[in-house]
Design goal:
The complex is a heterotrimer.
Chain A: E1 3-14, E2 17-28, E3 32-36, H1 43-50, E4 58-63, E5 66-68, H2 73-78, E6 81-84, H3 96-101, E7 107-108, E8 111-112, H4 114-127, H5 143-156, E9 161-165, H6 173-188, E10 192-197, H7 200-206, E11 209-214, E12 217-223, H8 229-236, E13 255-265, E14 271-281, E15 285-289, H9 296-304, E16 311-318, E17 321-322, H10 328-335, E18 336-339, H11 354-359, E19 369-370, E20 373-374, H12 376-389, H13 406-418, E21 424-428, H14 436-447, E22 455-459, H15 463-469, E23 472-477, E24 480-486, H16 492-499
Parallel strand pairs in A: 3-10, 3-11, 6-9, 9-10, 15-22, 15-23, 18-21, 21-22
Antiparallel strand pairs in A: 1-2, 1-4, 4-5, 7-8, 11-12, 13-14, 13-16, 16-17, 19-20, 23-24
Helix pairs in contact in A: 8-16, 13-14
Chain B: H1 10-35, H2 43-61, H3 64-88, H4 93-116, E1 121-122, E2 132-133, H5 144-148, E3 151-152, H6 153-171, H7 173-183, H8 185-190, H9 195-221, E4 225-226, H10 233-243, H11 248-269, H12 275-301, H13 306-314, E5 318-319
Antiparallel strand pairs in B: 1-4, 2-3
Helix pairs in contact in B: 1-6, 1-9, 1-10, 1-11, 2-3, 2-4, 2-9, 2-10, 3-4, 3-9, 6-7, 6-11, 7-9, 10-11, 10-12, 11-12
Chain C: H1 2-32, H2 37-49, H3 55-79, H4 87-104, H5 109-138, H6 142-163, H7 199-213, H8 215-225, H9 227-232, H10 237-264, H11 277-287, H12 292-315, H13 321-341
The chains are: A alpha/beta, B mainly alpha, C mainly alpha.
Chain lengths: ~500, ~325, ~350
């Protein structure tokens, strides 16, 4: 069978990480090929290289046996590649046909040939069984249909190889079924399909072959018919080193945070959190595991009071107060600290100084702020102590926070938040970008919350981190808590499968 | 006491499109910029450059037609400067607009004094203005006649441009690409469109249109150049564009509205009506319409699906402003 | 200590370059138009700072007061990341409302004086506050609403004077004079330099202190850097925006009040808009990067350029507009370089 494309010995470096490490992959024409892996495994980077968005540091790309170099997506498109990104690149105010022909418009007598464009689009949609109204405005279309527009865009440009990045992430179950039909249809028409996903049951349902990536390397290449979810997740999940965390026994106390029947509809009225209920107790670390994009973000934002969604149903209680619709300020005063995922856009103000970045958390400290006036000396003393205690490497607390390295900025934010020793600490990806020594230090501090009778809600896409720290693990999948596992029964594989959407038969 | 018979007075009717044309030209120019994602507040500056250039050209080249050409040239030069700062340097839209306005207004006065050696205004019997064109047959129809006939060629051209801009935006490849650039420039770039070039062209086109607006003011409405004779029409044009939702027909209608209100206020000045109050109208109307647009789109976005309604009936809830 | 000097130099580099560039290009323009830049600039300097018994210098200071005042108001909002360009309208409403209170108030002089001042601040503060409210509630960017509201304010003030409160006796479109007891005395004889001008440098120091040393100043500055960060830290950014814009507008009203009660003693339509105080103030604030002390210097500089322009025209042949041309070139250089650097006000996508 002819090879649609080959990626040979692809290497790609980014400043702190090797995203693709000697990846070799060959896909046949007409094949549906799945690329799976956890967050940060390197899947999107690899496909971006194939599509010309990035250039590999070394290695080669072959299309139909010919060596190619892509300087931009335009080169890739010319060679028959098409990509449907996770975040659609559509013009919502334009119509379907305008979106599809944009950049490659048919022309008649110097004018835009609307008729030819429309008929071409209609013909294309019939040929591939992709029902579409060419005149509809994209903003009026449901997400599943918008995806079809993206597909038609690629097909219009004569794409033979179609790449999908997390295609079912925003689709409803019904739309997903339809989508699989579309894929099968495309494949039977001779198109080669690659899709990136973390959802293993989908992989089993639709793909011919699977490549598993972990930490930038290929860990397995499997024939779908001959493998199982268990095997795939074994290759997906795994860690490069074990966290050496010493845990003491710690009894659980009262309930600090109680989430009851939380149902949330986001800005697009998408049902992003489905009937979420759980508690966090004193002395307990609750870990939320799951691939990014399954509702964890929205959950944390709703709990911290920083959300902008359309509808919230249910209750959130913090220290017995119903805080569901109260301000973030009130929640913080009631006993909440929050280490956010986005450290540069949310957790800090890069142009401000280190000291100013700390001050935001201590405006109610009567030593530092007296009658609305800031005492520079007290602030300096306080910050220097804090920075020393949490090992933040900074030469001058008056320097801009932008000068700090990523890891140090993270430690700065952590120092500010954890110094409160609040009843509830919410930590999102707390050790992302931090060196090994820093990770150990941060983990030690998180664990120390337990004997202080505080509770921690930990969100991390690093399964190993969740496993090292949590007393209880909740696994999120498509907006639901798909499973709950206690520490002593926690098993990497089991959790990995849940993260991929598979409910275990026996707990 | 109000005598509304003036509404049928041919002089009044004839004045309407004279006031509409400059606003319409400039608003169409602003519309093109909006479609590439630029809020151009330098229209006022472009217009005054057009006013001056037109007088300069007509005086020295002894022809109104050439005057218009020079007026357009002056305005396009100003727009080129604007584009250079905004697109190539990435300067802040509002600051650049304000700077250009200041530059154009002071530059025209400076040139007025340097070249013509006068202050305040310049006119001369040698200055060739735009002639009035009377359309046969139409001119004799009561009411319609004075309204549509007896205008300078530029006023007729302003109507033409409503169609031309429509065709440009919705019937040409370039227009489609413009609209894509304005909405999602990243997507446009990945599909092979030169975003910078597209923005430059849109801005230069607005320069052309504002130049025509200025020429109509200094060679059509009157035959002279007066300092700051654009007197806020550039700002009204911005408002007309906002109110007209950046659509050619909408812009035409709102320009018509504001032009009509202006001619009304001129008419009423002698009769003791408060011209100031009528001049306030365009701005107030625009703010109200901006508010209404927001409320409508917000309601539409939050319209609850069946699923959500089920929850609403079941339990208490609050909607959070998203 | 070292880093403070470094910071100062970094802050001053661009404005300095821009001013230099403005004057160089201005000289070029003069040459092209057939004027002698050397005599021209010499006349400019004299027009700004010289004159009989330094009369021109006094004039420069007098003009600088409203420019600096308005720039402080605008700069305060800019610092928080909100582009209040409605200073002209806010100032006019403050001026007219306080004038009318001053003329028609039945209360004793001292109470009336305070009442007028209070009215100016309240009215213009509220007018600016409206823009903030519409941003919070309807997501209408402050720069659009404040810009649009300039004109109704101006027209309304003119309407009031023209049709209701005209001083019939004088035959000119203006209000009566405010009672003599309310008129702020002139400090320097034979000039427009009145006691109220002293408030301006006081205001500069106050705002500089406020921004640097107080909690509210900290919140304003952080809002300008990253308002998401503030919200994350528990600060109500909506309330901050509304309060900030009220304060910004209030300062504009104060300036309007001082111009009426200190220089002309009546409201004359156009007295505040013809000299283009508000627009010069905005360019001043941008030149000084919204720093109060910088605004003091930049405002004085802008006033000198403007006042010097008048003198330049008297003594040499160069039209005084060259000063405004130079001002605009200065701003263009600044925004071009800032554009290259990536941001002028905020990296947030808040406005526009």
């Amino acid at each position: 069978m002819a090879l649609a494309f080959e990626l040979n010995h692809i290497h790609k470096y980014f400043p702190n990480v090797k995203a693709n490490d000697d990846i070799t992959l060959a896909v046949e024409k007409g094949e549906i090929h799945a690329i799976v892996g956890e967050n940060g495994a390197g899947k999107t980077t690899l496909m971006n290289i194939l599509y010309g968005l990035y250039q590999p540091d070394s290695g080669e790309i072959k299309i139909n046996g010919e060596k190619k170099v892509f300087h931009s997506p335009l080169d890739a498109i010319k060679n028959g590649l098409g990509m449907v990104h996770q975040n659609f690149m559509l013009f919502s105010k334009l119509s379907v046909w305008e979106n599809i022909v944009y950049g490659a418009e048919p022309v008649k007598l110097g004018f835009l040939d609307k008729n030819t464009a429309r008929t071409t689009v209609i013909a294309l949609s019939k040929q591939y069984n992709l029902e579409i109204d060419p005149d509809a405005k994209v903003s009026d279309l449901p997400v599943g249909v918008r995806q079809r527009v993206e597909i038609l865009k690629a097909l219009y440009r004569k794409a033979e190889i179609l790449i999908f990045d997390e295609p079912t992430a925003v689709l409803t179950p019904q739309e997903q079924t339809v989508f699989f039909e579309v894929l099968r249809n495309l494949a039977s028409n001779g198109k080669t399909i690659i899709f990136i996903t973390h959802k293993l049951n989908e992989v089993m349902a639709i793909s011919d072959r699977i490549t598993v990536l972990r930490s930038g390397k290929v860990t397995a290449q499997l024939k779908t018919a001959k493998t199982s979810i268990f095997e795939i997740s074994r290759y997906m999940v795994g860690h490069d080193f074990t966290f050496n965390t010493i845990r003491d026994e710690c009894p659980i106390g009262d309930v600090i945070l109680s989430v009851k029947n939380l149902n949330v509809f986001d800005k697009e009225n998408f049902h992003v959190l489905k009937d979420i209920s759980f508690d966090v107790h004193e002395g307990e670390i609750v870990g939320i595991a799951g691939v990014a994009g399954n509702g964890q973000d929205e959950l944390i934002r709703v709990i911290t009071g920083l959300s902008s969604v359309n509808y919230i149903f249910g209750n959130i209680l913090l220290n017995a107060s119903d805080i569901t619709f109260l301000s973030n300020r009130f929640r913080r005063e009631t006993g909440l600290s929050y280490i956010p995922e986005d450290r540069t856009e949310v957790g800090s103000a890069l142009k401000a100084s280190v000291a100013e970045n700390i001050l935001i958390g201590y405006l109610d400290n009567s030593q530092i702020v007296r009658n609305g006036i800031i005492s520079e000396t007290q602030l300096t003393i306080f910050c220097q102590k804090l920075v020393a205690k949490y090992q933040v490497k900074t030469s001058d607390i008056h320097e801009a926070a932008a000068n700090l390295s990523g890891g140090n900025l993270q430690k700065l934010i952590i120092s500010r938040e954890m110094n409160h020793s609040s009843k509830l600490l919410i930590a999102e990806q707390p050790t992302r970008g931090v060196d090994i020594g820093g990770i150990e230090f941060i983990h030690k501090n998180i664990l120390e919350q337990r004997p202080q009778r505080n509770g921690v809600l930990l969100v991390s896409t690093e399964l190993s981190e969740i496993l090292a720290l949590s007393d209880r693990i909740l696994v999120f999948y498509e907006g639901k808590i798909i499973g709950e596992v206690n520490r002593d029964q926690a098993d990497e594989n089991k959790i990995g499968m849940m993260m991929a959407g598979v409910i275990p038969q026996n707990s | 006491m109000e005598n509304v018979s003036f509404l049928t007075d041919p002089i009044f009717l004839n004045s309407i499109f004279r006031f509409v044309a400059p606003i319409l030209f400039a608003a169409l120019g602003g519309m093109l910029c909006t479609h590439v994602g630029i809020t151009n507040i330098a229209l006022e500056g472009f217009i005054i450059m057009g006013c001056f250039g037109a007088v300069l050209g007509s005086y020295f080249l002894k022809s109104a037609f050439l005057g218009v050409i020079i007026g357009v040239l002056f305005s396009v030069l100003a727009s080129l400067l604007y584009a250079f700062l905004k697109v190539s340097f990435g300067a802040d839209e509002v600051v650049v607009g304000l700077a250009l306005n200041l530059f154009c207004s002071s530059m025209t006065v400076f040139l007025l004094r340097s070249i013509f050696k006068v202050t305040g205004s310049f006119t001369s019997p040698d200055l060739k203005g735009l002639g009035i064109i009377n359309i046969p047959i139409i001119r004799s129809i009561p009411l319609v006649g004075p309204l549509f006939s007896g205008h300078t060629v530029l006023i007729y051209i302003s109507w033409l441009f409503v169609f031309l801009t429509y065709i440009l935006l919705y019937r040409t490849v370039f227009g489609l690409r413009m609209r894509g650039v304005g909405e999602h420039s990243e997507a446009s770039a990945t599909l092979g469109v030169n975003v910078h070039k597209t923005k430059y062209i849109a801005i230069l086109l607005s320069g052309v249109l504002c130049g025509l607006a200025g020429a109509q003011l200094s060679l059509g409405n009157v035959t002279m150049f007066v300092e700051d004779m654009s007197s806020g029409r550039g700002w009204i044009a911005i408002v007309a564009n906002l109110l007209g939702q950046s659509l050619p027909l909408g812009v035409f209608l709102s320009s018509l509205l504001f032009g009509f209100v202006t001619s009304l206020s001129f008419r009423f000045q002698g009769l003791g009506w408060a011209s100031e109050l009528t001049e306030m109208l365009p701005y107030i109307i625009t703010i109200i319409s901006l508010i209404l647009v927001y409320i409508f789109s917000d309601k539409k976005r939050k319209r609850p699906s069946k699923e959500i309604l089920a929850y609403k009936n079941e339990q208490m809830n609050h909607r959070i402003d998203g | 200590m070292d880093s403070r000097i470094l910071n100062f130099w970094k802050a001053i580099k661009l404005p300095l370059l821009a001013v230099l560039g403005g004057f160089v290009l201005g000289a070029l323009l003069m040459i092209l138009a057939g004027y002698n830049p050397i005599t021209g600039y010499a006349a400019l300097l004299d027009g700004a700072f010289g004159g009989k018994r330094s009369a021109n210098l006094v004039g420069t200071l007098v003009r600088a007061a409203p420019i600096i005042g308005l720039a402080l108001g605008a700069g305060l909002a800019f610092k928080g990341g909100y582009f209040n360009i409605g200073g002209e309208g806010q100032m006019v409403l403050g001026a007219i409302s306080s004038t009318l209170v001053g003329i028609y108030s039945p209360f004793p002089i001292w109470i009336t004086f305070l009442l007028s001042l209070f009215t100016a601040i309240l009215v213009s503060g509220t007018y600016a506050w409206i823009c903030a409210r519409m941003d919070v509630r309807f997501k209408i960017p402050v720069f659009i609403s404040s810009l649009l509201l300039n004109y109704p304010a101006n027209y309304f003030a003119t309407y009031l004077v023209n049709h209701h409160f005209r001083d019939r006796a004088s035959g000119v479109v203006q209000t009566q004079k405010i009672p003599t007891g309310l008129q702020i005395p002139k400090i320097i004889p034979n000039s427009q330099f009145h006691a109220g001008i002293i408030i301006i440098p006081v205001l500069v120091i106050f705002l500089a202190w406020l921004l640097k040393k107080t909690e509210i100043g900290y919140k304003i500055r952080m809002s300008g850097y990253n308002s998401k960060f503030l919200a994350y830290g528990g600060v109500d950014t909506g309330k901050l925006e509304m309060g900030l814009l009220f304060a910004s507008g209030a300062i504009m009203g104060l300036v309007g009040f001082l111009e009426v009660f200190g220089t002309r003693y009546r409201y004359i339509p156009g007295m505040l808009t013809t000299p283009l105080y508000a627009w010069t103030a905005i360019t001043t604030a941008i030149l000084a990067d919204s720093n109060p002390l910088g605004i003091l210097i930049a405002g004085f500089l802008m006033s000198a350029i403007q006042n010097g322009g008048y003198g330049m025209e008297r003594m040499s042949e160069v039209p005084r507009e060259i000063s405004r041309v130079i001002q605009s070139i200065i701003i263009m250089i600044i925004c071009a370089v800032s554009g290259l650097r990536g941001s002028l006000l905020r990296s947030d996508k808040k406005d526009s």
